Amino acid sequence: MFLLIVYLFSSDASSQEENNKPPGPKPLPILGNMLQLNLKRPYLSLFEMSKKYGSVFTVHLGPKKVVVLAGYQTVKKALVNYAEEFGNRDISPIFFDFSKGHGILFSNGENWKEMRRFSLTTLRDFGMGKRGSEEKIIEETCYLKEVFKEFQGKPFDTSKPLNYATSNVISAIVYGSRFQYSDPEFKEMVNRANETIKLSGSPSIQIYNMFPWLGYWLKDWRLIMKKREQNLRQIKELVNNLEETLNVEETRGLVDSFLIRKKNAEKAGDKDTLFHEQNLIITVSNLFAAGTDTTSTTLRWCLLLMAKYPQIQDRVQEEIDRVIGRRQAVMEDRKNLPYTDAVIHETQRLANIVPMSLPHTTTCDVKFQGFFIKKGTCVFPLLTSVLKDETQWESPLTFNPAHFLDEQGWFVRKDAFMPFSAGHRVCLGESLARMELFLFFTSLLQHFRFTPPPGVSEDQLDLTPAVGFTLNPSPHKLCAVSRASHIYA
Prior knowledge:
Keywords: Coiled coil, Endoplasmic reticulum, Heme, Iron, Membrane, Metal-binding, Microsome, Monooxygenase, Oxidoreductase, Signal. Its main location: endoplasmic reticulum. Its cofactor is heme. This protein is 52% helix and 7% strand. It is α+β, with helices and mostly antiparallel strands. It has a five-stranded mixed sheet. Strand 1 and strand 2 form a beta hairpin. Helix 7 runs antiparallel to helix 12, helix 8 packs across helix 12 and helix 12 packs across helix 13. The longest helix has 32 residues. The termini are far apart.
């Protein structure tokens, strides 16, 4: 009798939980809701579904159940107010292939806590978000401007120069030195990282994440694995070179700091230390990829939008000329350049370059907004639905810097501005990225006028993003016309 009562109570609780699960489209056997998704742009399909099923709903990606969070209020509540419950990373098959549970981006538990704590502390020690990194960025703007000048106002693809510039900023902090743009190994490393990120968002890799046993037969998966091995081999060589010249009295960058911690753990006989070679190489790989792709992609959108909307470019340049003039821009100038700052923020909002964030997973059973979500459930915080939330933005689908300006024309922060995500998993390098965006953008707009190629009108510049894990602009060329004759001697 006792067992019968326990069974009835437990089955009743289970049925209540089942009834309280988030709604969603009915899945097909095996395929789930795959046929209802645009695999090239799944974030758009999920955004549309949110309008039908609400701000918390369920989709099945193949056999895997995923809870999607949509809209500013819901995403913020989950990531900030329920930070612990939604705080783990869901490590999909392709991300596990990248990291094997090491590093920062795709790890959990003590490994994630230790690597994040060490990286954040060390990056700050080497000036992230402070004067130290400001000087590194300003130095890099000089090299970048020289590259742009070499095109002499003729059309060129901005992607590689911007990738190299942002890569060098993180390289200077991680390795202790920058690379020459002409260095073939550096070029290979940057290009490989960007191609890997692009391939990670391809339809075939999304299918692989649903059905991992297909991996060997998928060309994109084989290509990513090849690039991964090449990348890790190159990082290991760079780390070995630094280890050979290591001076514990004079650390050059994050790698040196990690190597010192590793050697100290070895001396102490700590066999359980997390400061081992795999964590070092994957952590460096994480920082290099994240610190390059997202910032350079945003800068590409900035320049494309300036060419698309010349009247906005006019206002930015008028403000820069009036406030800064000929001298080099510094971070202290940002408060006196409200329109320029608003344009950068509005670019981040509209470009929406990580539309689904990185997936989370629940650390325990959660009752959230009236729904029951089981421990271990994969969760997508749909950032595109936050950055284009109609309740938060006056004109969410258009480029409108006024979103970040008050009636007097001063910059205003918006809570719904969440391109770096939020909560425990907020972007590690947010302060560095903000600094890079401001200094690179103002320096480039100070020296160049960006226009479409001859014969191409502003209206013909396409704002449709390319397919990829992050949303890059579609392939295009711009002209960077020197403003020297206008304001410089």
